[in-house]
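step=encode ok
step=design start
structure_in=
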């Protein structure tokens, strides 16, 4: 049966009842609060429509995705070893991950957990200096990376290589392309109740419990003390 105008009118009226209840309970009962809440809701709906419900943004996204190289994924701005933000993920994160276990990616089980390793796999963090958010997927008791990388990235902070360093999946809302960074402990700040957007999150974690991520069995077998 084709959809009639009356059907649409009834659907709109039906939708308005729970919407009004939501606005009253969570946005305040005064007219000014409701007006502000409605304006914010309309703005967000407009942004969603412009970003996701038009063909052109999706065409651009698909084109960009299909033309990406591995280098674009880990170094989207093309800084290479000279990333001004420091702790550049660089191509080395992928080149050396499996072969040498660099950047917190070693499959060797961490049977012991040194007391000076303050943070755990699955915790959500915020970079103290650069402000981006991410989730910890691995750690090394001291920095484990190619010497050239350490020289370039830690040249102004030589003590960074002597403290725990953490592999971090970076939230794509903070950095536009999927990245893994390698962060010294002094730059890590744990935050709660924050989910991370990254296409590899489900590869490492089973679920998010509202505070932190729960590692998959293969990751738990490496970080048994976390």
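sequence_out=
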């Amino acid at each position: 049966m084709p959809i009639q105008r009356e059907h649409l009118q009834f659907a709109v009226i039906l939708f308005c009842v729970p919407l009004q209840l939501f606005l009253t309970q969570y946005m305040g009962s005064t007219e000014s609060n409701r007006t502000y809440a409605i304006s914010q809701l309309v703005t967000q709906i407009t942004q969603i429509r412009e970003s996701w419900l038009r063909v052109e943004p999706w065409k651009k996204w698909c084109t960009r995705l299909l033309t990406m190289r591995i280098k674009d994924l880990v170094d989207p701005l093309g800084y290479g070893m000279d990333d001004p933000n420091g702790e550049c993920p660089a191509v080395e994160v992928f080149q050396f991950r499996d072969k040498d276990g660099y950047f917190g990616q070693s499959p060797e089980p961490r049977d012991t957990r040194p007391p000076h390793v303050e943070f755990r796999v699955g915790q959500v963090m915020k970079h103290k200096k650069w402000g981006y958010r991410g989730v910890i997927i691995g750690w090394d008791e001291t920095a484990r990376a190619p010497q050239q990388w350490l020289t370039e990235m830690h040249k102004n902070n030589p003590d960074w290589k002597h403290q725990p360093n953490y592999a971090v999946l970076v939230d794509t809302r903070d950095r536009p392309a999927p990245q893994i960074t390698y962060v010294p402990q002094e730059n890590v700040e744990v935050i709660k109740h924050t989910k991370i957007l990254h296409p590899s999150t489900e590869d490492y974690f089973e679920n998010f419990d509202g505070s932190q991520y729960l590692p998959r069995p293969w990751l738990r077998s490496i970080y048994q003390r976390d």
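step=design ok
step=annotate ok -> Residues 110 and 223 are 5 Å apart (CA to CA).
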